[in-house]
Amino acid sequence: MKNTATQSTRRGALGLAAGAALATITSARAAAPAGAGPSASDKMRAFAALPDWTGIWTRRGNLFDPSGGAPNAGTNERARDYPPYKPAWEAAYSDFFKNVVLADKFSDPLTIGFPGGMFRMMTPARGLQFVLRPEQVWIIYERPDVRYIYTDGRPFPPDDELWPTFEGYSIGHWEGDTLVVQTRSIKGGIPIDRSGTVFSDEASCLERIRKIDEKTLQADITIEDPLAFSKPWQMVHRYIKRDEQYPRMENVSSLENQRNPLVNGQTTVLLGDKTPDLASPYPEEIRRFAVPNIRVSRP
Questions:
Q1: Domain range list for the chain
Q2: Distance between CA atoms of 186 and 120, rounded to whole angstroms?
């Protein structure tokens, strides 16, 4: 008990130091003359105060929200998400889950070369790595994709400078040893897991990520989507540090098969769309097997 209490006290002290040092460097940047940055000593203190999140962190299961009792999506009827969808969105998701996913017809866009997007990145099969700097945090995914989280005190860009992208736009700040991240401008219609759950272009996400012990990171997540949801969707993700002498995060490439997806049980060849649907990143031939048929942005 004494050791546990001592470790907890040290983590608390480190968290307070991190918050104070990062607040100092942010204040120094704001107070400095135009064109001048924080001093070298301020930068060193800010670096030294950051928590240690080195290593490769994995999460059990591939469902975004495994609260239904089955952690992995597949042909198990319990292996689905339970977002607080509005009726039309729930109907589209349920229909897709029943007639495509449970029928083993799902063509996962991730396996044919499309980016997974920020939500898919946060449910990694082979792990995540975190690079912490005072002004940015980088979350590195296996494919490889990278999330850039700006922690230098900047606000979000104006609305006319934001447009939906696969990773969205993330800004963050430190509250002690907890990284608080807000993400907006996330491209809708992207499956967040193999059950086919999608959001609209209006979705936003709040994450609070902290290290709760030496081998566990916890992310408290709140997602809001005024177009698709009747209320915010909240959940907790936990990531376990891989305990290996030589850990590595395998890079999976699917470029060689992006023109040959399995559609309705048959291997197909995609030669490109003559009239592409600009609202969807997926080819017309696989869209109905890749995502629920739902409008993800307002008319």
A1: 2-49, 57-290
A2: 12
User: E strand or H helix at 120, and its extent?
Assistant: helix 117-121
Scan for tokens 């993700």, then name that residue.
237
**Bridge partner residues of 160 (DSSP):** none
pLDDT tens-digit readout, 128-159:
999 999 999 999 987 768 899 999 999 999 99
Q: Token pair for residue 4?
A: 């546990």
d(CA 219, CA 109): 26
CA distance 85 to 91: 9
For 187-211, how does the pLDDT look when each residue is reduced to its tens digit (9 = 90+)? 999 999 999 999 999 999 999 999 9
**101 contacts 77 by C-beta, under 8 angstroms:** no
Contacts of 164 (CB under 8 A, 6+ apart): 185, 186, 187, 188, 201, 297
Q: How far apart are CA 72 and CA 80, in angstroms?
A: 9
Of residues 168 and 269, the one with the higher pLDDT is 168
DSSP characters for 11-73? HHHHHHHHHHHHHHHHHHHHHSPTT----HHHHHHHHHHS----S-EE-S-S-S-GGGS-SS-
**What does each C-alpha distance from 168 to 46, 231, 246 come to in angstroms?**
26, 21, 32
Distance CA 191, CA 62 (A): 12
Alpha carbons 183 and 223: distance in angstroms, whole number: 10
Element (H, E) at 179: strand 178-184
Q: Which two tokens stand for residue 94?
A: 């349920």
In the beta sheet, which residues pair with residue 233? 223
- Confidence (pTM): 0.80
Cis amide bond preceding 144, omega within 30: yes
- Dihedral (Cα; 264, 265, 270, 273), 10-degree rounding: 0
